[in-house]
Amino acid sequence: MSTVDPEEPRQDGPGDPDGTGRPADDIDAEFARLTEGLTLDDAPLTVEDVLTEDAGEEQEPAVAVVATSVVTAKALAGVIRLGREARTDGIDIPTGTRTLDTGTGAIAVGPHAETAAHDLAAITSAALQRNGIVLFWRRGDRMTATRYKNGERGEDISPAIVLGAVDDVVEELLLGATDLAELGEGLDPSALTRAEALEWIASGKKRK
């Protein structure tokens, strides 16, 4: 004969739907407390949302400055035009490039993305051959400096190391203290013919 007491029958009723012994009203109140402040109105993050955020970063203004020892902006414009012709890899002068005079040598500038900035430096360096140049580039908080010679990319260096050797306007551009629009139109090397480029190089060797 078993001595185990028989299991008491469960007394689930309309006020205890889950058999916990708590009234349904208490369960509803607890659920309401746990979900307080939560909302299902926000749509889930999609791939398009992520791509849009990345595109926003790419749209942040950029500036490229190619610092050279060429005496005048006119001569540098001619140099860049011939440099494009000397390249055999098909890269072209980035749209918006212009040359300007500074106290330490002419510079080529433009609102270029990083790849376009390096294209401009490679073209310029191809024409100047053994005369080294430095490409400065900035977008947002990111700033770089890269040496070029004979049309080839050289070492990346700290901008702080080489900024002291160029005109103050280069640093002002990189720090955002001066905007490209404030520097004037400059000279567009892509608008030159080959004959004009040769003439500009010859006539622009000396600063007026």
Describe the structure.
It is built from seven helices and six strands. It has a six-stranded antiparallel β-sheet with strand order 2-3-1-4-5-6, with helices on both faces. It has a domain at 61-203. It has helices at 24-34, 47-58, 73-86, 114-128, 159-162, 168-175, 194-203, and strands at 62-67, 98-100, 107-110, 133-139, 142-149, 152-157. The chain has 208 residues and is an alpha+beta fold. It is elongated and about 95 Å long. Residues 1-26 are annotated as: Disordered.
Q: Tell me the total number of β-strands.
A: 6
Describe the largest sheet.
6 strands, antiparallel
The helix-strand sequence is HHEHEEHEEEHHH
Largest sheet: spatial strand order? 2-3-1-4-5-6
Radius of gyration equals 33 Å
Class inferred from helices and paired strands: alpha+beta
| Mean pLDDT score | 84
In DSSP terms, counting alpha (H) and pi (I) runs of 4 or more, how many helices?
7
Q: Which spans have pLDDT < 50 for at least 5 consecutive residues? A: none
Beta-strand fraction estimate: 15-25%
**What does the overall shape look like?**
elongated
Ends apart, CA distance between termini: 122 Å
Helix content: 25-40%
Structure in a nutshell:
It contains seven helices and six strands, in the order ααβαββαβββααα. With 208 residues, the protein is an alpha+beta fold. It has a domain of 143 residues.
Keywords, please?
208 residues; alpha+beta; six-stranded antiparallel sheet; 7 helices; 16% strand
How are the SSEs ordered, and which strands pair?
Blueprint: H1 24-34, H2 47-58, E1 62-67, H3 73-86, E2 98-100, E3 107-110, H4 114-128, E4 133-139, E5 142-149, E6 152-157, H5 159-162, H6 168-175, H7 194-203
Antiparallel strand pairs: 1-3, 1-4, 2-3, 4-5, 5-6
Region (Disordered): 1-26
